[in-house]
Amino acid sequence: MSRSPFNCGWQFREKFNAFAELGRVTIPYQDVALPHDAMIGRGRDPQLHLGAGTAYFPGGAYEYRKTFDVPEGVAGKRVVFEFEGIYRDAMIHVNGDYAGQRPYGYSRFLIDATDFVKPGRENEIHVDARNHGDGRWYTGAGIYRDVWMHVLEPVHFGIDGIRIRTPDIESARAIAEVEITVVNDSAALRTVDVRSEIADPAGQVVASGSARVTVLAGESAVTRHRLYVPSPALWNVDTPQLYTCRTELRDQDEQQLETRTTTFGIRRLQLDPKAGLRINGETVKLRGACVHHDNGILGAATVSAAEERRVRILKKAGFNAIRSAHQPISPAMLDACDRLGVLVLDEAFDVWTQDKTNFGYAFDFPEWWERDLEAMVAKDFNHPSVIMYSIGNEIPETGTPIGGVWGRKLAEKVRSLDDTRYVTNAVNGMLAVMPDVMAMMQQHSDAPQAESDSTDAPGINTLMADVGDFMNMIGSSEPVTQKTAESFGVLDIAGMNYLESRYETDRDLFPNRIILGTETFPTRIDRNWQLVLRNDHVIGDFTWTGWDYLGEVGIGRARYPDGEQPGAAFSGDYPWLTAWCGDIDITGHRRPVSYYRQIVFGLRSEPYISVQRPEHHGQTVELGPWTWSDSVSSWSWDGFEGKPITVEVYSDADEVELFVNGRSAGRQLAGPDHRFRCEFDTIYEPGTVEAVAYRDGRDSGRFSLTSAAGPVRLSAIADRPAVRADLSDAAFVDIVLVDGAGNSFAADRDVTVEVDGPGILMGLGSANPATEEGFGASTHRTFDGRALAIVRPTGPGGVRVTVTSKGCEPVELLIEVN
């Protein structure tokens, strides 16, 4: 078999009516390289109905085409195209003929084009995709993940035909079961030999085996190698050791028909309510990040280097697990999690039979759900990072008997495909009983004011003032206990969204129930993490979100009276662009909450300083449950000299003292009993602000910020000095406004990026959560003094990147492309 990238040479345009072209009205195609997001370059529409969900990007229909040659030698072989993801309602035509389709926008799928390609001639593949009113967040559009072309011999391995499991692991040896599917597309019975050899992380062959297989014409057969790996190097988050299995297919004349290399890890999973989740015998608490699929300024384009960079930054920030919210994770991110040692909860669906948008996946779910689950499991099976599957997110049906039926069907389907991992479902208790909630709200709304005031129960407006408390109050109620019993009962792990009020009560109500906080408020991590640590049956916490994302705009924004009134809408008005609730912004820069979380997790002993934006000092502010304070880690505030300012300090120490230019601004209690934080009101003056932490009265750590002074300079640093001459790679250039000592400015200005040589500027942008700027221009304004440029290689050689800004010396850097 040959498997080759199929990402070059594509053209793209918005879908056009063929009849209009007869009238000589046409839209020209544009050359593009995949992965490509057809939506990110579109103009945003401030008046778009329900536009806050998609960041005010309108939907549309798109088409792609590519011409390609098929050599004469391919005649008699099978040609299959592998699409890792097309959003959405993909229709594939080859040489004008319908070849296949896929409604779900997040599934990897195969198109058998054997009957449509013409060997020895030029061929054309055409892809239609559309999205319209079908996403609760920014979905992107088009062929946003990689495409591969497979050319298969008449007798070949199944494309997903090699599966490796390690059922028995001891210190002296581990058993690796290699399950191999051989497909015979020829017209005659064939007998072949299958050989496998396993190499350890150092590349040394440590086990091998072979088997002879006879396959009937037009059928497939499964053979298994039971191999013994001595002294196994185990995969875990601290030492992600990876083995490779090289499997070879030969005919009776010893002619090699195919060779496949499969990467896997040796690790053991265990689960019970006393020891919790164990990996290789050691209990692991999941420090989890919910992550949407978009790559910020790249939109939905799933460039492998961007996926790996996200995983690397998330792990450095203290996370050891990722939940793919709310759709199957990309193969590129799975590969990165395997290599870097990050655990994965892969999630299948956001809806089942009840839709949450006008034209969502629920219309297709009854017909396609099994094939989409099969695609997810086939993609994940050999990845040691994947430890559990989620069959849904906040599914309304989970509070109904029919929802229990569907949950059981999905869970058992997953188990039939993969019994080596656990099954969960991210259940929101309030949504599960929404009809009851609506009735209660109506009752409170209809009740006379005097009568409402005379009762002990709070009014509905009071309840809704804190969404988190309201959701927990409903979630811990008896109706939720009863109505979700069956939906939780079909799972290995009870996934709970915003239901920490159930963690300890369910220990007594359901002694065998194992709980995972599949989605939680970032503002409650200190309390939630204590619940995780003191309850064996609670195995972790996944914050919403680890990485900021496009769409669901402004759910984490701070609301001020001069901008919008308290009690304003759930989402922000145009030009809000991102949710602004991530620990890490869309450029990969860690926000203050990220360092706070690291302290709560016990991974950082030094204190951390964040400063509330002084222009809002003294104003009334409304902070929602996804809203961290409106602060930034900077002591550069030109124009606010001599004015009041609030300084936040995060620390797990007993006390913290704040110094401004060496003078004490006070000493306050911190640590777990004070939610790991304290605030100091002081007067801003340029210089240095320093926090000193004390444990048992002794200095236990310091952290300081220094004001930027003097002329503004440009700093531009690439994440790596060299990248591969491959469309899956890219260089990420962090651009920061600094002074001569490297201290960053908070003030902003336009920066321009030029790229010369074998590379292109794929995207330029900032983390500004409310901006009208796009990401496709060569000039962009910084936000809090920062921007990010992404350079994609187009061939080998040296790429020169020049960054300029008015009044600054230009900065040049050279990126080698090998």
From TrEMBL:
Task: Provide the Glycoside hydrolase family 2 immunoglobulin-like beta-sandwich domain boundaries.
Answer: 159-267
Pfam families with a match to the protein in the record: DUF4982, Glyco_hydro2_C5, Glyco_hydro_2, Glyco_hydro_2_C
**Keyword Hydrolase applies:** yes
Which residues does the UniProt record annotate as the domain DUF4982?
642-698
Could you tell me which InterPro entries the record lists for this protein?
Beta-gal/glucu_dom_sf (IPR036156), DUF4982 (IPR032311), Galactose-bd-like_sf (IPR008979), GH (IPR017853), GH2_Domain-Containing (IPR051913), Glyco_hydro2_dom5 (IPR040605), Glyco_hydro_2 (IPR006101), Glyco_hydro_2_cat (IPR006103)
Residue limits of the Glycoside hydrolase family domain? 714-812
Q: List each copy of the Glycoside hydrolase family 2 catalytic domain by range.
A: 277-441
One of the record's GO molecular function terms: hydrolase activity, hydrolyzing O-glycosyl compounds
* Protein family: Belongs to the glycosyl hydrolase 2 family.
The name under which this protein is listed is Beta-galactosidase
Q: What organism does this protein naturally occur in?
A: Acrocarpospora macrocephala
